[in-house]
Design a protein that fits this description.
Length: about 450
Amino acid sequence: MANATVSIFLDSSYTKKDGTSRFYIRVTLNRKTKKIPLNLFLRPEYYNSKTKKIKEIREVPDAKKNNLYLKDKESEIEQIIIELERKKQAVTFGNIMSIYSNCEVNGSFIEFAKNRLNEERNRIKKSTHEGLELDILKVERYQPNVTIYEIDESWLEKYRNYLIEKLDNKANTIYSNISMIRKYITYAHKKSIIDRNPFHNFSFLKEDGKKEHLTLEELDMLHDYYNSEQFLKIYHKDKRGKTYLTGLKYQETLQHILISCYSGLRLSDLKKLRFKHIESNMIIMPMEKSRKDKEKMLRIPLTERLLSILDLKDKKPSDTIYQGFVRNSSDINPMLRFIMKEVGINKYLSFHSTRHTFAVSALTLGMSLETVSDIMGHNDLRTTQIYAKIIDDKRKDEMSKWNRLNRPSDGGTTHNLAICPNCDNEVINFEKGIITLKKLSLQCQSCSTKFSYKVI
């Protein structure tokens, strides 16, 4: 490589808020230098400037993998320069960058997506990275040799049909799979690797799932149960016949559930909640679900209800303000369903339902949509508007009770019409004289309410 050198370096002259600096490829041509940024960041103390490598120590996860990545990137630029010289083309920064931007593709969408994901791994959460890996693998199984240029509206439609008909995927799974393709196709279009973006004329929708939640009355029932001594009656018998008091762990779990119901905190945020996060009668803490490069702060005022279940006395900054430790959702959810059964609430809930409960309860009590959205840490107001729709649907159900005024009275009617006293749903309609019983025991198919109906 005449008059050209390539090397990797960590630019520690600038550090981000988290203390990390960015890696660059340094290309020198005829004593002029250009830096090519890489999407890899590291704390300077973990970098060996002599060997130009990341220190492979326990404190640095994936150090070996990242060193290989850096070596590959360095070799990639060197090969571009060698190829330009072989073809007797000008070795300029412009020609190098033009080939570098496109050589990631090599015609393969799979390789392009994997390369982009590899560069993003330090900017996205591990769970997000793993999800995108699975989405890419699904495309690879469908058509391993598909090129980035083949992906048009027709191809996308065929892939969607494959997800529906062959894999029997649900709407939101399909939305996630195709969103991955859109992410990388849009990037390729932005970088002028492809001439047009097929997603400008291809639409796909996310299905709004049913967001189960507790009513204000049910929330009162759980709060009263938490304050009662019923937990002292919960025992577990092991295989040897020995009994243990297990009620206290249920009480701790219910406390965590109620905290989320009254604050809207996610499980990940609740796990990190400490006394140091209480300032000026508010919870002020960084949101765990924030993007790594854009931290978002939660600011949640403490209400009387929330204060009534927190322990704020004689605490050190690092102390928790709730009992015990916060379990994972896989452990919490069975315990929550056991508590619901004990209280007498017939709903199948998960811990995440507590966020739905907070949103619906707050809007029901009159809080503005914008305030609820801010407290919950939503990036888009449209996410919060889903809960407003739940409130509107409830209003419609309640207002439909006025329709009873239009129904004929008993006089002169030829049919018996049984209406659910809870949700106003028509349960049974039959001609007079067909049933000789004087009273029927019925159950509403819509809300499962059981009631008696007097046959006329």
